Amino acid sequence: MAISGAPIYGIVIYATVAILSLLTVAAMFTLRMRMIKKLSDFNLIRLLTTAVYLCSIFFIIAAGILFTSTHLSSWSFCHGAIILCLVFYVGEKVFMYLYLVERAHQIGTRKRSKNLVFIAGNVIIFLGFGTIAGIAFWRPVAEISKVDGKCRIGLPLIVTIPLLSYDILINIAVTSVFIFFARHTIRGGRSRGIIRRALPVPCIKSAVRLRTEDQVLELFVVKSLMGCLAVIMPTLANLVVLFKLHGHEQGWLCFTICTIDLTWGCIIIHWLTDFKAKPQDLPGGVPVYIEMD
User: What pTM, to 2 d.p., does this model score?
Assistant: First the structure.
């Protein structure tokens, strides 16, 4: 049975994922906003992470309204659905990688206008994602099936493969640059403790204290590497699904995958900027909260 072209099970699955995701992102966003005491606390790092949260929140709300009010029952609604996914998917990825580039820049001491890594990183992000996104907006897949009357949306494989591959490559590249700049902090003797401190398990984290600035930076390096791998996982899953369905997903499935992907990105950013105790600043002004003995 279906309602206006959307299967009942699809509506239930998407609604469940959307509600849980919105509650999760809203909770994380609230925790971050509670740390902002005055407007001057908004540096570039915080502005970019806030933009990541807002992209996810706006997408979940907008997609939920579009889906529940129309069930993607006509071509115009179907086409609007894929455009909505593209806008917020690309938007969150751009903000996320701008955050990673800014974080790598702040490990150094040069001004942004003289930092080749910062300039090159931003150019690569905007040109790369801009070019691929432009092609994606030009050639999206949106159709109402003549067989079952259901909305199917996606992107041609000729667009999807470069987009997701670029996503993976730029993630690895930016993380590698950050680790390269912070390589002097890595010490083999304490790496095991730092890895335990990076795990999102409260009882383990509380047992491992950070005593020096280098230990804080090494924690950032370990979490960055783990975060890089975590961000790649849903992208690879997307590739598998798109290959299996040939870039033609049912509307509810595409919305569900986009919602999970954007929410997962927020969770990773939230974890990478996990502030817990006393405020400290790394060289270059990177704000962190650490536990000091």
Answer: 0.80
